[in-house]
Design goal:
Structural class: alpha+beta
Distance between the termini: 92 Å
Radius of gyration: 29 Å
Number of strands: 23
Helix content: 40-55%
Bound molecules: protoporphyrin IX containing FE
Length: 654
C-alpha cells in the first residue's frame, strides 16, 4: 500500500517505472542497511507533490509551448504520461540521430539554434508559423530544414520550388500528413484530406462534376444571387439602431451558410430533429457543421511531433474532437435521412445531395456523409475570410473605394444591381480579389505533405519520410517577386493577364497548385467578387476610428481577421428610373440602396401609394432603416419613375 512503503528485493530497473496497475510509481532503488530497497509511492501522492512545480513550469514556457503542454496534459499533471513521454522521446531521438549518421546527403540548410529532442519548436513562439518561416526565409533562403520534435520538415517559400514539389515531384509528395484532430474529424474520407489515389480521384470527380465544376456553378447562379440579396438586405436591417455601423462579417456569414446548404440540399433547413441531440435551429446546425469542426481541427497533439509515441494515450484531446465529430456525423446523417424521405415523394432535383443519393448508391455510409459535409464547410469559410479582408482594405482606402464604385457604375449604370455577367468587365474588382488573396491568403500554410521516396528539390536531397511544408504566405509575399509585399496594392495585379493563381503561374498560390489544387476556385471567383461589388455598389464604407488597430489576423484553419469587420455603411444616393421593362422589384430595391426608394417601391408594388401619408409609413420612413416593408420579390410590368434624394426621409421621393 502507498503508506506502508514495502521493502522489495532489487529486481527493478534503474529508471522510474510504473506498476502494471498504474497505481504505484517505483522510484529508483536506494541503498539502505546494505540492501537495495525500492520505494513505492502512490501515483496520486507524486502528482500532488509535483503539481505546483508543474504549474510553475508551464507558466514559464513560451506561449505556444505552454498551450501545447496544457492541451496535451491538461491543467493537472499526468506524471505517468510525462515520464513515459520523455523516455520514449529520448529513444526516438537516438534512433533518428543514428538514421542520419549514414550516407552523406546534400540536405537543405537547417535553422540554427535547434535543441535535442524538441528541435526548433521553442523558436516558433509566434502562433502563426507561416510568419516565422517567412522571416527565416529572408535569412536562410527559400528552402530550409526545420525540426519539430522528431519530424523533419523542409519548408518551401518560393514559387519555383513550390512547382517542383506540386508538379515535378508530385508522385513522391502527394500524400497528406494528418494531425490527430484532422484524422478524427475527416477519417481521410473527404477530398481535401484523403490520400491521393483511386478513392480520392473518384470523390474529386464526383464533387467537381456535380457541384463545383463550371456547368453546375452556372446552374447554381440563382442560389448565389439569393444569397447576395440576403446579404444586402441584412446590411440594411443592421443599420437600424446602430448609427450606421454594421458587422460586415455577420452579414456575409448569414448569407453564405444558407447558400451552402441550398446548393447541397436544394433548401436551407430552418430546423432539424436529430436523434440523440434533439431539435436544432439553423444556427445550431451551422455551429455543429462548420464552427465546431473549424475550432477543433487545429488542436495540437504533441504526439504528432513524436510519432513513436503515438501509443501514449491523450484521451482529453481525443474525446473533445470525437464529440465534435460524432455530433457532426449525426446532423449530416439526419439531413441525409430527410433527403431520402423527400426523394420518396418527389423527383430528384439537380441539388448535390439528390445527385449523390441517386447516382452514387454504392458509396459507403461514411463516404456519403463526408461527401455531403465537405462542400458545406468549404463554402462557408474561405470565401467569407477573403471578402471580409477585401472590404476592410476598401473601407480603409476611400480613393480605391471610389475607383471601384465608378468602375461598377460605369458598367451597370445606376439602373440595376451588378451581376456575375459584369465580372469580365470589372478589371479593378478582379485585381482587388487577387491582391487580397495574395496579401491575406486564407490558407497560409498548406497541410503537410509526406515524402514517400527520396527526391531532389532546388538541388537539395529531400529524404523519404520527411514532411514538405509549402508556405503559401511566404510565396505570396516573396520580396524577390513583389515590391513592398506588405502593402495591399491591387494595382500590382491590374492588367496582369498571366496571374492565374496557381493554374500555370505560381506567384500567387492561395489555391495551391498541381493535381491537388483547390476544387472550389470557380465558386470562390463567383462569390468573393460579387460580395465586394454588391456591397460597394450599395454602401459607402468607412472604418470607425479604432478599426485600424483591430486589423491583426489570427489563424484557425484559415487566417481570419482577429476582430469582425465593423464599418459605417452609408447607403449611396442615386436616381433610379424604372422603365417599361420586366423588372425584378427586389433587385431594383437593392440596386437603389436608398431606403426612401425601397419603401416607396415596396408600397407601389402593393398598389398602396396612399399609405405613404399615414403615420406608420412616416415612422418607418423617418428611421429610414426599417426593412419590414422591404421584402416583396416579384416582377413589375408598369412604367414608373421614381426619384430619391434623401436617405432618411420620403421628401426626396415625393
Ligand atoms: C478563397 C477561397 C478558397 C481558397 C483560398 C481555397 C484554398 C484551398 C487550398 C490552399 C487547398 C489545398 C491545395 C493543395 O493542397 O495544393 C484547397 C483544396 C480544396 N478546396 Fe479550396 N479554397 C477556397 C474555396 C473553396 C471552396 C468554395 C470549395 C468548395 C465548396 C473548395 C474546395 C476544395 C477542395 C475539395 C479541395 C481539395 C482538393 C484536393 O485535395 O484535390 N475550396 N483549397
Amino acid at each position: 500500500t502507498p503508506s506502508a512503503r514495502p521493502r522489495i528485493k532489487l529486481t527493478v530497473p534503474k529508471v522510474p517505472r510504473f506498476s502494471t496497475s498504474r497505481r504505484l510509481v517505483l522510484l529508483p532503488p536506494r541503498r539502505l542497511n546494505e540492501k537495495f530497497v525500492c520505494r513505492a509511492m502512490s501515483v496520486d501522492t507524486v502528482i500532488d507533490a509535483m503539481q505546483p512545480l508543474y504549474a510553475k513550469a508551464v507558466t514559464s514556457l513560451p506561449g505556444p509551448l505552454a498551450d501545447l503542454v496544457r492541451n496535451t496534459l491538461g491543467e493537472q499533471l499526468n506524471v505517468l504520461g510525462v515520464l513515459l513521454a520523455f523516455v520514449v522521446i529520448f529513444v526516438s531521438f537516438m534512433l533518428s540521430a543514428r538514421a542520419f549518421g549514414g550516407e552523406k546527403k546534400n540536405l537543405p540548410p537547417s535553422i540554427p539554434g535547434g535543441l535535442p529532442i524538441l528541435g526548433n519548436m521553442l523558436q516558433m513562439t509566434d502562433k502563426r508559423p507561416h510568419k516565422t518561416f517567412f522571416k527565416w526565409a529572408q535569412e536562410h533562403g527559400p528552402i530550409f530544414h526545420v525540426k519539430t520534435g522528431s519530424i523533419n520538415n523542409v519548408v518551401i517559400n518560393s514559387a519555383d520550388l513550390a512547382k517542383e514539389v506540386m508538379v515535378t515531384n508530385f508522385d513522391s509528395i502527394s500524400t497528406r500528413r494528418m494531425t490527430t484532430a484532422m484524422w478524427i474529424l475527416t477519417e481521410k474520407k473527404m477530398v481535401a484530406m484523403s490520400d491521393y489515389g483511386d478513392e480520392h480521384r473518384m470523390l474529386k470527380k464526383m464533387v467537381v462534376g456535380n457541384l463545383l465544376g463550371i456547368t453546375t456553378q452556372r446552374a447554381n447562379r440563382g442560389i448565389r444571387e439569393d444569397a447576395l440579396n440576403t446579404m444586402i438586405d441584412d446590411i440594411f436591417k443592421d443599420l437600424k439602431g446602430t448609427e450606421g455601423m454594421v458587422d460586415i462579417r455577420e452579414c456575409i456569414k448569414y448569407a453564405l451558410f444558407p447558400f451552402s446548404m441550398r446548393q447541397v440540399f436544394g433548401y436551407a433547413p430552418e430546423k432539424l430533429f436529430v436523434e440523440g441531440i434533439g431539435e436544432l435551429g439553423k444556427w445550431d446546425i451551422f455551429n455543429i457543421l462548420v464552427i465546431d469542426p473549424l475550432k477543433h481541427v487545429i488542436e495540437v497533439d504533441w504526439r504528432n511531433f513524436f510519432p513513436a509515441l503515438s501509443w501514449v494515450p491523450n484521451s482529453a484531446l481525443e474525446t473533445r474532437v470525437k464529440n465534435t465529430h460524432d455530433r457532426k456525423l449525426k446532423v449530416v446523417g439526419a439531413l441525409i435521412e430527410e433527403q431520402r424521405k423527400q426523394l420518396q415523394t418527389r423527383e430528384p432535383t439537380k441539388c448535390y445531395a439528390d445527385i449523390v443519393l441517386t447516382e452514387f448508391p454504392n458509396l459507403s455510409p461514411i463516404l456519403l456523409k463526408h461527401s455531403i459535409w465537405e462542400p458545406i464547410i468549404e463554402s462557408a469559410d474561405t470565401t467569407l475570410v477573403t471578402s471580409e479582408w477585401a472590404l476592410y482594405e476598401i473601407a480603409k482606402d476611400p480613393k480605391m473605394q471610389e475607383r471601384l464604385y465608378s468602375e461598377i457604375i460605369s458598367v451597370t449604370g445606376n439602373k440595376r444591381m451588378v451581376t456575375e455577367d459584369d465580372l469580365p468587365n470589372l478589371p479593378l474588382l478582379e485585381a482587388i480579389v487577387k491582391e487580397t488573396l495574395r496579401h491575406y491568403a486564407p490558407v497560409t500554410l498548406l497541410p503537410p505533405r509526406y515524402v514517400s521516396a527520396d527526391v531532389k528539390i532546388g538541388g537539395y536531397d529531400i529524404p523519404k519520410d520527411w514532411d514538405v511544408l509549402i508556405n503559401i504566405y511566404g510565396i505570396n509575399w516573396d520580396p524577390k517577386v513583389w515590391k513592398n509585399p506588405e502593402v495591399w496594392n491591387p494595382d500590382r495585379c491590374l492588367g496582369d493577364k498571366s496571374l492565374d493563381l496557381g493554374i500555370k503561374d505560381f506567384r500567387i498560390l492561395s489555391f495551391g497548385g498541381g493535381k491537388r489544387m483547390c476544387a472550389g476556385m470557380t465558386q470562390a471567383f463567383a462569390i468573393i467578387p460579387m460580395n465586394i461589388a454588391a456591397i460597394v455598389q450599395h454602401f459607402e464604407l468607412t472604418l470607425p476610428p479604432n478599426e485600424n488597430v483591430n486589423a491583426q489576423d489570427t489563424v484557425y484553419l484559415t487566417s481570419h481577421k482577429l476582430h469582425p469587420l465593423r464599418a459605417f455603411a452609408r447607403p449611396r444616393l442615386q436616381v433610379f428610373v424604372v422603365t417599361n421593362e420586366m423588372y425584378d422589384i427586389g433587385a431594383c430595391f437593392r440596386g437603389a440602396g436608398d431606403m426612401a426608394f425601397c419603401i416607396s417601391a415596396a408600397l407601389l408594388w402593393r398598389g398602396a401609394i396612399d399609405f405613404l401619408s399615414q403615420p406608420a409609413a412616416r415612422k418607418v420612413s423617418r428611421t429610414g432603416l426599417d426593412h419590414s416593408v422591404y421584402c416583396p420579390l416579384g416582377v413589375l410590368n408598369t412604367p414608373i419613375a421614381i426619384y430619391s434624394s434623401n436617405v432618411a426621409g420620403l421628401n426626396g421621393f415625393r
